[in-house]
Every structure is written in C-alpha cells, then in structure tokens.
Specification:
2 copies of one chain form a homodimer. By secondary structure, the first copy, chain A, is mainly alpha-helical. Chain A has 3 domains: 7-144, MgtE N-terminal fold; 160-279, CBS-domain; 291-461, Tetracycline Repressor, domain 2. Chain A is 65% helix and 6% strand. Chain A contains 21 helices and 6 strands. In chain A, the strands form 2 sheets. Chain A has a 3-stranded mixed β-sheet with strand order 1-2-3. In chain A, strand 5 (245-249) and strand 6 (255-260) form a beta hairpin. In chain A, helix 15 packs parallel to helix 21 (433-461). The longest helix of chain A has 31 residues, at 365-395. Chains A and B meet through helix 1, helix 3, helix 12, helix 13 and helix 14 of A and helix 1, helix 3, helix 12, helix 13 and helix 14 of B.
Chain lengths: 462, 462
C-alpha cells in the first residue's frame, strides 16, 4: 500500500522517531564497504527520498561518491530535489548523464526548476536536453522569472474552470482529465479573460449537489500573487492568512500558476534559518560546506569584528595613565563591556526578530525603544549594586565599586537603546538588520563601556 | 464574494504589500480618538482576523482597552484565536462574558483548545460554560492530552471511511454529511477496528470512476502520529516528508483526529522563533511584554554572564605584574577575547541549528568537529598575521605582535572546537543547546583568551 512505509515508526514512543536513525547510516556504510548492492536496495526501499537525501548530505565526499556509484538509479529525481543545493552540484557531477535525464523526466516542472537554478550552465544543458519539449518550455519560462519570486515558486499545473460552471460540470471535467496535478486543493474560477476571481475547495465541491453553481461556493480566504512578488512575502501571507493554495497571476492579471502551502513552508523555513545564521555572521553556510569554504565565508565577519575591537582598544589606549596607576581597572573593564554586549544582544535579537515578523511597526516603535531603554537602565541599576558590592569586597575600595556601578548603568542603558535603534535604522536604510546589527551594536557597547568606566576612573581615582 | 478582500492589494507592486499598512493604524487611532464606531466597522471590514489581532498587539495597554470596548463584537472568535497568547489574557479580561461566549461558540474545537490552554482557571470556566455539551466534551478531552502534544494540535473533525468502500460510496457519503470540516484534504481509510491504514486525496477521489475501490487509490505519503507525540516532531515530519494532513491515533492505534499542514506550519514557525530568542537569552519574550516583565526575564541570563565574566576577570587578576609592567597588554587583551567570542559564536550557531534541524548526527559529528576546529585554526593564523603587523606598527614591538598572534591562534582554535562541542555535549545531556551554549562557550574563549595572551606575555615580556 505504501512504498515509503515509515520504518522508523517501528520503535514507537522513542523520542527521536523522525528523521534518520543511527543504526541505518552504519548499516548503509557496511553495505557500502562490502559493495553489497542488494542490501543497499533493501535499506533504501522503505526510506522517503528526503531521508535518502539526508543520508547523502551526512557522508564525507569520498563515501558520498561511492554511495552514488553503488546506488545507481536509486538516486532518483525526488532524491535530487530533496538534496541540499550545495551538495547537489557534486552529486550531479558524479551521476552519468543518462541517469540524470531519467531522474528529472519524472519530476514536476517546479521541482526541475528548483534543481536547475543552482547548477552551472553545462549541467543545466544536460538536464534541459533530457526533458521533452513541453516540459522544457515550462522550465525555461519559469527560469525567466527573477530568483526568489512567486514565478519561480509556483507550479504551472493548475486546475481552473469558468466561473459560470456547475459542480456537475466540474466533476465531469476532472474525471476527463488524463493527468491531474499531484497537489491540488482548490479549483480556481476564472473570468473570460482568464483572471482568477475565486476558488472552491475540493471538499466543498464534493459535498455539493451537481447543479450548484461554482461561484456560490467560493472561499473568503482567496488571495492571489503576482509572478514577480518576492517569495518571502508569499510565505508571510501563507502563514499570516492560513492559505493552503493561491493562484499566481502575470502582469496582465491572467492566471499563470499556483503556489501550494508546502512550497511556502519550505521558503518560511529557509528564511528563518538564514536569519538565525546571519545574526551570527554565518549566513549562507551549510553543514556540508568544506573547511576552506567556511574559512572564506567567516573571514569577513571576523575582519569586521577585528576592526571594531581595535576601535575599542583605541579608546582604552587613551587611559594608559589610570590603567598603570590602578591595575584593578584592567581586571574589571572586560566585565563592563561584556555585560553591555550581552544586554545589547538581547535587545537587538528581539528587535531583529520583530522586524522580520513585521510585529515592530510605526505604531509601536517608540514604545519599544522606551521599553528597551528603561529595561536596560533597570537591569543596569540592579547589576551596578551587585558589582559595587563585589568590588568593595574584592578590592576593598568603595570608590572603585561606585565607578564600575555607574559605568554599568550607563552602558546597559546605552545597550538597550542602541540594541533596538540600530536594527531599526538599518532596516530603514534598506540594509538587512540581521546581517549588520551585531557589529554596530557591540562596537557601541564596547566603546561606551570602556570610555565610561576608564573615563570615570580617571576623574575619580587619579 | 470575499469578506476578507485584501485591501492592501490595491497598491500593487509595493514592497510591503502584506501585513498591516501604516496609514491603517493611524486611521484606527483617529477613529478611536473620535469614538467613531461606524468608521471603525468600515476600517475593520476588509481586514483578515490575523490583521486585526496584529493591530491589537501593537497598541499600548490603554489604547487596546479603548479599542476593544469600542469594537465590541468586531473582536470575534477568529481574532481571539489569532492574537498573541500574552495579550489574549488581558483582552479576555476586558471583554464582557456574553461577548466571549458568542465569540468562541463559532470556533472549531482545536481553536478553542488553543485559546483555553493559556488562560487562568476562571477564564477557562467562562469559555467552557459558553460551549454546548458536545463541543465542551471535545475541548475537555483535548485538554487532557499533554501540552505540546499531537493530541492538543489535532482537530477532531475527521472524514474516515471503511477501506472496502468505492469512490461512489465515498462521494455519496460526503454529499449526505450535514457539516464537513473546514479543512480536509484526504479521506482516511480505516480497518474494522478503526485503525487508519491509508488515505486518498480528494483530487484522486474526484477524478476516479465511481466503481473504483478506495484502497487502490491510497497515497505513499501516508504517515500517522500518536496522540502523545511531541508537536515539534510532528512539525518536523510535515516539513521533511511534505505532508498535507496526517491522522492521529490513540494508544490502541484507533483514529482520534487529524493534523493539517497549516497547524504544523504554525508550530514550526513558533519553534524557530523560540530557538533564535533562546540563543540570545530572551526565550519566551513577546514584543508586547511589559518593561517590568522583560527586566525580570533577562536578569537571570545577565546574571550568568556577570558570573562568567567575573571568572574571566579572576584569570586577568593573576597577571597584575605583567599588566602593570606592559600597559599595552591591557589595551590589546579585549581584542583576543572578542575575536575568540565571535569565532565561537559562529561555530556554535551552526552547531545549534544543525542539531535543531537534525542535520548533525552521529554519522557526521566527528567530521563537523574537525572542520570547525581546523577552520578556527586557519582563521586564527590569518588574523594572527594581521594583528601581529598592526601591533608592530602601533606599539613598535615585534615580540608583542608574536604574543598576540600566538594567543589568537590558540583562542580561535579553541573557539571552533568548543563552539561545536559544547552544544553537542549539552544536547547529549538533554539540555537545550540553544538555551545554554552561549554562556559556556564565551566563558571558555574569555578564559582561554586572557590566559593565553597574558600568560605568554609573562613568559616572553617580563
């Protein structure tokens, strides 16, 4: 009944029921070592293509090559479309052209587009040559839309019907279609100019009397997107308005395709992931990237950080006199900077996320800035008290305690304020706040922290 | 045709087509100021409940109260189920009981459960009293399942049929049902013990001849979940296996309900969001939280950071002699710590995310640890060269350049290694790596950074 029986369901109740189990990958490695193709076929048989793709991603380069060669056609089009794009290129390089051709021929056009867009020209040509002319045209048309647009995301296989049809007409028509799209949840109603004007769920269609007019059954959730709409906006709308599918229209408003929720879910997932990674300066990274590649990718961010920490050091260098006189300052100053940096990261993360989810808008921006600043100030006061007392007992100096306390209050206030203001300012300037906020914000708290602490110390202690 | 016409589609091609536009919120505030209820009705009319909920979330407490009072029944059950849980409690406090009762009576049972689970006992009683006895029973049964379980997430409205039925039987049956669930995409086939054994898409059903047996039309994607399965695992499986809906079974394997992809998408979205916030020590925060609340929530994380930075300061305190002798060390030492901290955060973020997405497994863990360590080492060497040269020109001392260079190489190597090892170890111990990794990892790089730099300096420069 099922060719992807979830083998993993056997060990019911176990915490990690989903995804690959560990013994599977060691069994595959064993089959690989003994070149036992029959065993490999047996192991792959119950797996979903997404799990086979994960398995390939988790292997080292040499093992992956061996596995692909031993698997042959077991690595089919569905596996290819599930596999991470960074690995896919090398997988396709290893596969014989005839096998690639077989694999892609069985895919829907949107999956072929998804595979093609990240390949180099010669690999693209291999795949396009394998398609029949109709599919090839559909794929080429989709590739003509900008990257990350609704046009790229949509499938062209659409079920649409004239708005004046009845339920009986619709069912009759569906029965006569040779091939229905793999995924469809709505029949889209179009006017004579082929503009989509509403849709009917299949459930509604099926439960209504045959003489019911389709346009009395439309759903209020109906919403359409233009082919050039950004896929991030599409994913946002699917999530916000609980859409299941939505038609995509060309610049004339004519129906061009349909986007389904599973595609939107993938985009939402990827955008989220990218945002988290960007906050840490590792945007665009994959776990499968080579060492050399991640060194190259991380270098610029670390370079920015080197520059900003040199700025902070230049501030410290202005206070050599007081540092020589009171060595306790050198011992304590990282605490002021570190607390400021952490408080700022808290505010910044909240602000960056709220901008991404569109919860931070002109109606609440002032309230949020005030809240973050006051929260920074209050935590500053609390930690100033703690640190003042610690200093008094550690270095026996009440004055030193006062200096570090006041410096912390100033730095945590600034941290709260800058933590939320910097992402908002970057966003206004059209710069991705997830990418750039961290460097700016920690520079501010480092510079302010060292300046406030050492500056106060010069005045009070020298 | 549509009662949620997307008013925002009017300004086509604009970047921020989705979500609330700015002028809307100012218009609502104006209507509120002039107590113009007709205008408010007019403004709300084209809005999706999710947008009305966003509007309420973005207002201050006083304005929100006024808006709720002026809106009356415009704040219906759908708005209530869209609104952020932190705000919901206060909204329900403001609304008259009769209005709450009206609102929830129109919702499906899973939405009522979603609203109820975050309310206090007396508010729960108000809502339960408003439901008729069947709905009340369904809601109470759902609340008996553990929080964050498939049982809580599922809807109880299911379309199931005996496996031996034909397409004709199925369509006949669907036509006869008085009320079909709002969302359904599959007919679930059950055996005589009411165990789900497969499903048929509505598209397949509709396009097949009436005498076709249902069990010849089942889909390979079929997968079921137990009522006590964690909702995170359910969301993962929906995303990994591109599920649209899946049956939920009780401990005897009997069909209890169904989960649809839109519910899974919400869970995936929330889990992602929570992971990002946890990494910065602001887990569980909402933009609508009060200042007092965020001060309280952030205090513990800042407290941990204070403790760890005092540890680092204790390391520095061991080297007072060399700091007094060479004040340049105090100027430079934050650079070593900061570079280490940033490099470690990069490795850590990659590892924490890979654990969350289940891409980091026993088959690639050694390779990833090696990759991160080598990448840290290589970037360490590169920045050691840069910083060595900077030091030579800044302080005129080649020896100081060598000291900071070697310290950076050591610290970045340790950063790469600890950045990936700490999250893995926490995960093995059953501690959420997103929550706790940051504090451990930066302690390691601070301590190692200061120790390597000042220790080397003591040996070489004193």
């Amino acid at each position: 009944m099922s060719n992807h029986t979830p083998s993993i369901e056997a060990d019911d109740g176990h915490e990690d029921d989903y995804g690959l189990d560990k013994s599977l990958s060691s069994q595959v490695l064993l089959a690989l070592a003994t070149e036992d193709r029959d065993r490999l076929v047996e192991l792959f048989e119950p797996l979903h293509p997404a799990d086979i793709a994960d398995l390939l991603e988790q292997l080292g380069d040499a093992q992956r090559k061996e596995l692909i060669e031993l698997s042959g056609p077991l690595i089919d089009g569905e596996v290819l479309s599930e596999i991470d794009e960074d690995i896919r290129e090398s997988v396709i390089d290893i596969m014989p052209d005839a096998q690639i051709a077989d694999a892609v021929r069985k895919l829907e056009s949107d999956d072929v587009v998804d595979i093609l867009e990240d390949l180099d020209k010669s690999q693209q040509a291999t795949i396009l040559d394998a398609l029949d002319s109709t599919d090839r045209l559909a794929v080429e048309q989709a590739l003509a839309y900008p990257e990350f647009s609704a046009g790229r995301l949509m499938q062209r296989e659409v079920i649409s019907m004239p708005e004046h049809w009845t339920v009986g007409d619709a069912i009759q028509n569906l029965r006569e279609q040779v091939e229905l799209p793999e995924q469809f949840y709505h029949v889209i109603l179009v006017d004579p100019r082929h503009h989509p004007i509403g849709y009917v769920t299949l459930g509604r269609l099926m439960s209504s009397a045959p003489d019911t007019s389709l346009n009395t059954l439309t759903e209020p959730s109906f919403r359409s997107f233009r082919v050039d709409e950004d896929e991030g906006n599409v994913a946002y709308a699917f999530n916000q308005y609980h859409l299941i599918s939505a038609p995509v229209v060309d610049s004339e408003g004519r129906l061009s395709g349909v986007i389904t929720i599973d595609d939107a879910m993938v985009v939402l997932d990827e955008e989220h992931e990218e945002d988290v990674l960007r906050l840490a300066g590792v945007g665009g990274e994959r776990l499968s990237n080579s060492t050399f590649r991640i060194v190259k990718r991380r270098f610029p961010w670390l370079g920015v950080n080197l520059f900003t920490s040199i700025l902070a050091s230049l501030v410290i260098a202005q206070f050599e006199d007081v540092l020589t006189a009171v060595v306790a300052l050198a011992v304590l100053m990282p605490i002021v900077a570190s607390m400021g940096g952490n408080a700022a990261t808290q505010s910044m993360t909240v602000a960056v996320r709220a901008l991404a989810t569109r919860d931070l808008t002109s109606s609440n921006v002032l309230r949020v800035i005030r809240r973050e600043s006051v929260a920074g100030l209050l935590n500053g006061v609390l930690f100033a008290l703690v640190m003042g007392i610690v200093c008094y007992f550690w270095f026996g100096s009440a004055l030193l305690g006062v200096v570090i306390g006041v410096a912390m209050i100033i730095n945590l206030l600034v941290a709260g304020f800058a933590g939320v203001l910097v992402p908002i300012a970057l966003d206004k300037m059209g710069i991705d706040p997830a990418l750039a906020s961290g460097a700016f914000v920690t520079t501010v708290t480092d510079v302010v922290g060292f300046f406030a602490f050492l500056g106060l110390a010069s005045v009070v202690l020298l």
